[in-house]
Amino acid sequence: MALIPATILTGFLGSGKTTLLKRVLTEAHGQKIAVIENEFGDENIDNEILVQDTKEQIIQLNNGCVCCTIREDLRTTLTDLAEKRRKGELDFDRVVIETTGLADPGPVAQTFFMDDEVAESYLLDSILTLVDAKHGQGQLDERQEARRQVGFADQIFISKADLVNDEEVEDLAHRVKHMNPRAPQRRVNFGEVAISEVFDLRGFNLNAKLEIDPDFLNADDHGHHHGHAHDHDHDHDHGEHCDHPHHHAHDDDVKSFVFRSDRPFNPAKLEDFLGAIVQVYGPKLLRYKGVLNMKGTDKKVIFQGVHQLMGSDLGPKWAPGEKKTSKMVFIGIDLPKDVFLQGLEQCLA
């Protein structure tokens, strides 16, 4: 049986998760979706879509979608649903997990890798994060959970953009891009998002091509050149201006940086270094991902991780004439960039 795709929907309180979910659940897209609610009492979809006083944990909606709230832990709920599906008691194509607005999506994502039973039934497709254009800046300033949700995202939806002026939305978009350059951003109003922008994004697929916004590689803090080949990602392109007064005012603890090199890695050295880094900084590493040129193989090595969990796959062969450049992006909380960049430099063959 094919794996069931799973999507994690996150975002701070009031960012519009329920509105987006409601739209996804009620739209006639022909998909049967099981929604798992991390019940936290403050914004349950049930209030809006479902009848409150039902004793049932799992409710079927009239368009074939299924809703359930987590009464035990996520793992149990996921294995229950998969079993009911295998037995033919429930029919659904995919799962969406709505986290509470205060949740760190990391442990939810880890469930899909750490638990064998869950890993055998599900494929984590992506983490979607909603950021509220009106209150987002303040939430990012004050709440680490909001910053972590941005750091984990595979796709970011900026909601309520109609409530603020264009410049405010631009500022927020720019800030979020600095925190997480690998997540594409879209603006959404009233949850109006095409299903194709929500599902089957393959954000967690190791073989997906490494999405780092190409402009990001040319844009960041001015003037921090150290002459290393990999450090060219810190000067603005000539065509790009960054004279917004607010852009660099935020010293967010969630930051990202990129390592690039045209020299191949020594596999043993790299494995030792990454192993050590993950031991020390695991809890602060939100997401990391890369396409690597390894000595001894003509295939790309694709790696990624969440917190302490790291995995790698052999990807396709480098195409004839393709430049064999390793690219890695790290997103985390107060990571010592110099330690990472120098350490990686020392792992090159």
Automatic annotation (TrEMBL):
Reactions accelerated catalytically: GTP + H2O = GDP + phosphate + H(+)
Pfam families: cobW (PF02492), CobW_C (PF07683)
Matches recorded under CDD domains: CobW-like (cd03112)
Keyword Hydrolase: yes
Compositionally biased residues, Basic and acidic residues: 230-248
Start and end residues of each CobW C-terminal domain: 254-348
Keywords: Chaperone, Hydrolase, Nucleotide-binding
GO molecular function: hydrolase activity; nucleotide binding
Source species, domain of life: Bacteria
Gene Ontology annotations for the cellular component aspect, listed alphabetically: cytoplasm
Gene3D superfamilies named in the record: CobW-like, C-terminal domain, P-loop containing nucleotide triphosphate hydrolases
Region (Disordered): 221-248
Purpose: Zinc chaperone that directly transfers zinc cofactor to target proteins, thereby activating them. Zinc is transferred from the CXCC motif in the GTPase domain to the zinc binding site in target proteins in a process requiring GTP hydrolysis.
Similarity field: Belongs to the SIMIBI class G3E GTPase family. ZNG1 subfamily.
Name of the protein this chain belongs to: GTP-binding protein
Organism: Piscinibacter terrae
